[in-house]
Amino acid sequence: MTETPTREVPLSALTVEQKAGLLSGQDTWSTREIAEAGIRAVRLSDGPHGLRVQEEGGDNFGMHPSLPATCFPPAVALGSSWDPDLVATVGEALGLEAASAGVDILLGPGVNIKRSPLCGRNFEYFSEDPLLSGVLGAAYVNGLQSTGVGASVKHFAANNQEADRMRVSAEVDERTLREIYLAAFEHVVAEANPATVMCSYNRINGTYSSENRWLLTDVLRDEWGFRGAVVSDWGAVHNPPAAVKAGLDLEMPSTNGRSARQLTQAVASGELDESDLDRSVERVRALAAYGGTSGPADFGKHHRLARKAAAACVVLLKNDDALPLAKDTRVAVIGEFARAPRFQGGGSSNVRASEVVSFCDALAEYAGPGVGFAAGFRTDGEDQQALLNEAIAVARDCEIALVFAGLSESEESEGFDRTTLDLPVGQVELIRAVSRVAPKTVVVLSHGGVVSLEGWHDDVDAIVDGFLLGQAGGAAIADVLYGVVNPSGKLAETIPLRLEDTPAFGNFPGERGRVVYGERLLVGYRSFSTRKVAVRYPFGHGLSYTDFGIRDLTVTPIARDRVRVNLVVDNVGDRDGAHVVQVYVDAGSCGEVLRPARELRAFAKVNVVAGGSEAVELNLDRRAFAYWDTEISDWVVTPGEYRVIVGRDAVAVDAESVVELAGDEITRVLTLGSTVQEWFDHPIVGPVLLDTFQSDLLAAIAQPGTLRVMGTLPMQKVVNILGESLPAGAVDSLMAMTVGG
Ligand code: BGC
User: Fold this and answer.
1) I need a surface site. Which of 376, 565, 669, 703 has the fewest CB within 10 A?
2) Fibronectin type III-like domain: which residues (predicted)?
């Protein structure tokens, strides 16, 4: 943090030029300083899973070097921990490193939804589910901001692909935005009061996020009560006056005075109210309150935390009696990633790790002599045959082969999307060849976006998903393989059987500057469960070295629109472990709008000792049952029955209960454009409609068989036919009864 100002002058003491100058960066990473007015520069830096502090003249593409920092597990891994306490601890450590480097605002977390598994930046996002993303995002912000350093929740909003990310228009209907793409941001704003929200590059329904008043002001501030500053993604502003008017406060990085001049001129011409400028200036000045005080970062301690966190993220996908390994098992270690780990993603989040531990380095802690190693493949694809032969020779001579496979940095990064879910062909060949000769084969995967397991899944005995685990990932993998840590990670994203099955297929990444979110709410497991499409491993899946059972589920309504869930988790195995209780709601039969067959509505990670039990209580609030109603522009809980499902994952049900909720009494406004059916269904008008109209025709239409056919007629048509025969004022008085309720 730069020096705290002695005294800030009142706003009225600043000229329009000075104020306009404060609304864009001084350089790549700082806001403008006005020393004579006591206004200090605020320093921002990437984020999200490690500090990327650059010296003067840095860049936002991760091209120039940065100072050493701890590389914690990126969000793709942290998402799989399902553990908000752990994420908060990582957030706090990030804050301490930021504070010690003089950084006031750390640019994270990223809470965008993984709409397609192909998005090149999925490694930087938590999940395909908004609740999981929102809860972990809020935990990150609370942990980080507990150190005094501010957060920047990004990228607001609907930034779900890298293809054409600076211009593409995400064409999304409002209900889908509210329920899927905005919900995680809303949760973070409500639960963690972040210092800043970073607006995305893309357009939403034609309007750039940076100029989207509905997004930045109506929803973010007026509805959600956001009190911080909106900062642009680096270079996301096209029209500074329009952006400030819409609710953007700080444009980053510097535009060398151009934006300030445009804002000054806009005030002079009356295009922009000075009060709009002042409002944003106050918000930018308020950022000076952020920035922690901290001594030098304890990299040793943070490396140990990075190892613990990484181990909690690992997902054991499959285990046919192969794991955990005994210390004296004769293992063959195969795969380049075992000695040169892939542990973070490429682009603006790329951290210069303070140290890196590979699996080969970590192995010394566990295994005795007799461990063979073969690189198996090279990420540049050279010498494939020779490396394959060498790997087969090593695999023949072991009890268990451990194959470290995955994607290299050239295959996925910020800036571009993938076009396939497949592992490189050479690696698939390697896995299959090794599994043919080794008594047992375990595959350990490193990747930022989902990879397909097809073509080799059934050939191997165990699969360990390591995603990108940060700088201590090699040690964490060893901890899990040797059973020192019992795996407890759960998939935060579905692993499909085919790319063609994924919900955005055909719409992603769009064309000619537009991407249509045609799958609407059916994103991730919401699609697979509703459409009953088989997957390789569902959202929420993850094995353990012990077994858990669920009993004594009770679901108690505690109001018209909320319930309490109680249950007991038993650890029925012989190892201590952690279980993630996942509560889904199926509102399928409620109401006239689409409801996904499964929606995660609460979760808790609980540690249970071997043979022990833990009682769990979770509250499902109103939002757990609500949908966004576009007609009345609000959340609605339809009266009716809801299935509350305690799932082992998004498919396997451990226990369930049906609960009846009174829900909301909604009085919809009737017009002559409303259908006859809507008039009959109306809770106030329906019961008195026939008596008021006194019409034989309407009485005939009201017969069930006829109503089915005629119910879609607008009431105007019936009124036209009835004409003078209707009692005077009958229609108007009925419509008036529906207004204002
Ligand atoms: C990225 C942001 C990042 C910023 C600063 C942009 O290109 O989208 O996530 O925080 O650069 O590096």
Assistant:
1) 703
2) 579-650
